[in-house]
Amino acid sequence: MQLQWQENVKLKSALEEIQLQFQETKALQIKEPEAAKNVAGHVAVIESDAAKKVAEHSVTQEVPVFDNELMAKLKAENQELMAQVSSLEMKFDETSKLSEEWLKQALDAESKIIELKTTMQKLEERVADMQHEDQVLRQQALLNTQVSRKVSPSSSQHMENGHLDPQNSSPKRKVVTDPMKRSQSGPLQEIVDDLITCVTKNVGFDKGVPVAAITIYKCLLNWKSFESERTSVFDRLIQMIGSAIEENEDKNDHLAYWLSNTSALLFLLQRCLKGNGASGSSSQLPPAPTSFLGRMAQGFRSSSTNLAADTFRQVEAKYPALLFKQQLTAIVEKIYGIIQENLKRELVPIISSCMQASKGSKGTASQSSEESVGSSPSVSHWSSVIECLDRLLSTLKENFVPPILAQKIFTQIFSIINVDLFNSLLLREEFCTFSNGEYVKSGLVEPELWHEQATEVYTGTSQDELKHTRQAIGFLVLHDKSKITYHEITNELCPVLSAQQRYRICTRYRDDDSNTLSVSPDVISRIKVLLTDDSNVDDSNSFLLEEDLSLLFSIDDIFGAFELKDFAVAKAPAELLHHQHFPFLQEQGHASA
């Protein structure tokens, strides 16, 4: 623009000069007529020059048009470059996100590898400890067999945890003065009686810790019962717990109390007992313990008092203590199974009411009357199921049952519900209908809501156990099933169901309202091809689900459910806290306080 302005200035100056020359020429024409022709020629030259300059000025005026086109081209190229930069920036962002995701996955994989290695190490140490315990138990069983062969059949010696009572086996044998080895005489019998009388009752919990469990453990530790080769105190404790369970097998609150105490006591035994020469031996431990028992014992020891640390020290366990731990493990499993069976007996009659027979089938009169009133029978029956689950959940929480055991119980219960509902769908034709599918589907919302409200801390993934029923119901409530392809039913609608189960539900289905068809014959034939040649698809019950009666929890689950530091601050029951024969409980109570 500045160049154009300068050019305009030059042109104006030239025009002014031409005009001046023109005026001078006119004056000369007046003064000198003879020179007119020459002047005219001169004027023509001047005018020609002026015309050229004007033409140049016109060309100069057209330059901006050329600049606009160039600018437009430059702008277009600039926009294209900006688009390429933007595209590169987006690719860079995507690459950065992918890199971050890959880095996260790599870190997660590394973390899982470390976790798996740690778990494997713990399992190896656990197996080593179990093998040693098993060896001790086998050796003691063999020793008892050899001793029993030498004893006269007419003699009747008293047995203590698999051992002959030394007081009866040999009158000349000197009895060791360990207080727990005099369990058949004197004041020690009274002391054990006082302990059993106290813990037989519900002594409750202190800061969530089962009081009976920690009290029994501290007494056994103080009496050095774990290190005794002969003692009857373990037998008496097992008998006491067994009797308490058998007398109240139908009361889940009582069973939950003992499930909490026995699992806590089992945890303490596992953490603090070690077999003679086992991998957890203190003589074999380096400064930083690597064994499972060593790490856990050191990790949870309280630095507040030496007394608290001494309470949870590792001790050499003899045969009676190892046998007691095995018996206690069996009791925990037994209580778990009884609670599960109690809830099952309560739920099964209600679950059968969560199904609706098709119209015209027997037993639908009461359902029709309920529907005519405007109620929702499916939700009503499921509400009864939820009430049972709520009662058990509250009972388990009130008795501080480890959440991992609660998860396993509810997982087993939901599995039972799934088996009962699913098998009813496939066994009874009046249930394999569109209307019953809608009926059950409306009710299945209730356990899903309950699972969310109860939280996964106590229910885990128990909701997933209903997957067979949910997929079967999803098939029943589909409209126009004849358009479903083989791929859709096997991979999208019912991937969990077996070929027998898919064949059964497809061939048994009927629409009791509009009488629509099931899947196409081609789909059924393709499903039938997968069935084994030697099975009769019409009569065989291979499509039925079976209850998994195996325990869904391991003892290792219990070991991760408690922390030793919680037991360090728990107080003994008031009945024993100030008892003259239990001064160690009072000292530990003051230390924890």
Automatic annotation (TrEMBL):
<dbReference type="InterPro" id="IPR016024">
    <property type="entry name" value="ARM-type_fold"/>
</dbReference>
<feature type="region of interest" description="Disordered">
    <location>
        <begin position="147"/>
        <end position="185"/>
    </location>
</feature>
<feature type="coiled-coil region">
    <location>
        <begin position="71"/>
        <end position="140"/>
    </location>
</feature>
<dbReference type="InterPro" id="IPR002710">
    <property type="entry name" value="Dilute_dom"/>
</dbReference>
<dbReference type="Pfam" id="PF01843">
    <property type="entry name" value="DIL"/>
</dbReference>
<feature type="compositionally biased region" description="Polar residues">
    <location>
        <begin position="147"/>
        <end position="159"/>
    </location>
</feature>
<protein>
    <recommendedName>
        <fullName>Dilute domain-containing protein</fullName>
    </recommendedName>
</protein>
<keyword id="KW-0175">Coiled coil</keyword>
<dbReference type="InterPro" id="IPR052072">
    <property type="entry name" value="Vascular_dev_regulator"/>
</dbReference>
<dbReference type="GO" id="GO:0007015">
    <property type="term" value="P:actin filament organization"/>
</dbReference>
<dbReference type="InterPro" id="IPR037975">
    <property type="entry name" value="MyosinXI_CBD"/>
</dbReference>
<feature type="domain" description="Dilute">
    <location>
        <begin position="235"/>
        <end position="533"/>
    </location>
</feature>
